[in-house]
Amino acid sequence: MAATPKDQLAETAASTDGRPERTEEVFRYYELAKKQEWQVRDMAWGDMPPIPETKGAKEKQARRQGIWRSVITQQLQADSLAVEMAAQLLELARHHEAKLYYSTMAQDEARHVEAWLRLAEASGGTSERDPYLDKLAQMFLGLDALEEKVFLMQVFFERMIIPRFRLIARSSRGTLLEDLCNRLTIDDGIHHGAGMAYERVLLRDADKKTKDRMIRGAENMLPIFADHVLWRPKEREFIGSAMRSRDVARVQREIEEGVRIAASLGLDVSNIEYTIP
């Protein structure tokens, strides 16, 4: 079993001597991110199928390929958003150690986009965009405060997206898609952990107005996030109707986990009202 980001972080603890105590953990995540760095060329291009192969009639094969293309397109869209967000965080970060970390996160997200682009090409191209991801992108990129950006992007969104990578990997054994999702599970776990560490630093100096704005931001985000999780392109519409009850339960679990994580930062979002469509 692969080590978790928290386990790996402990291995770097001895190398941060001389760093300011309040940003020491953020710097350790920078070191961990450098240690876990990988390259798109490391993947077994040409030696593994890009997506699960389907036997049977051509119509069946085309339908299954369309399903996987839609999955890849959605993840490519999400990581393209993450590139823009990481660049904003790098520019806005107020501490040297955080800027170091965000320099690695920006590289990570660009690497993810490169891998998704190559995988999309190998799988027959892209398909329909997720309109709710576009709404989330507009919201995240339009936030004014650094505290809000870290909270909604790294603390909430990055954490909520990790279970999806695990689900896709389990459904695509022996493929480049599985390999990429396993890599991104580790990377996004580090991004989430670093966001938690830096948010704790930022919240030490945040006033009530800033914290209230963060809570309102989460309240605005959650309904759109639920729409995003439940949305299906035309290639997966028939799956969506069959699995809706399971998807709704998954959204509920992920939101509850987000509420618990926010509480660990001293933010009470338990009274947030949202509707799962």
Write up this protein.
With 277 residues, this protein is mostly helical. It has one domain (5-264): Orthogonal Bundle (Ribonucleotide Reductase, subunit A), CATH 1.10.620. Helices cover 71% and strands 0% of the residues. The protein is globular and about 60 Å long. Mean pLDDT is 89; it is low at 10-16.
Secondary-structure map:
Elements: H1 5-11, H2 24-35, H3 58-92, H4 96-122, H5 131-142, H6 146-170, H7 176-203, H8 208-230, H9 237-242, H10 244-264
CATH homologous superfamily name? Ribonucleotide Reductase, subunit A
Radius of gyration: 19 Å
Beta-strand percent range = under 5%
Number of strands: 0
* Biggest sheet details: none
The total domain count is 1
- What sequence of helices (H) and strands (E) makes up the elements? HHHHHHHHHH
Shape: globular
Q: What is the level-2 CATH architecture name?
A: Orthogonal Bundle
Structural class: mainly alpha
Q: What is the average per-residue confidence, as pLDDT, rounded to a whole number?
A: 89
CATH class: Mainly Alpha
Unreliable segments of 5+ consecutive residues: 10-16
Report the total helices.
10
Share of helix, binned: over 70%
- Span between termini: 37 Å
Topology-level CATH name: Ribonucleotide Reductase, subunit A
In short:
The chain is mainly α and 277 residues long.
List keywords for this structure.
single chain, 277 residues, mainly alpha, Ribonucleotide Reductase, subunit A, globular
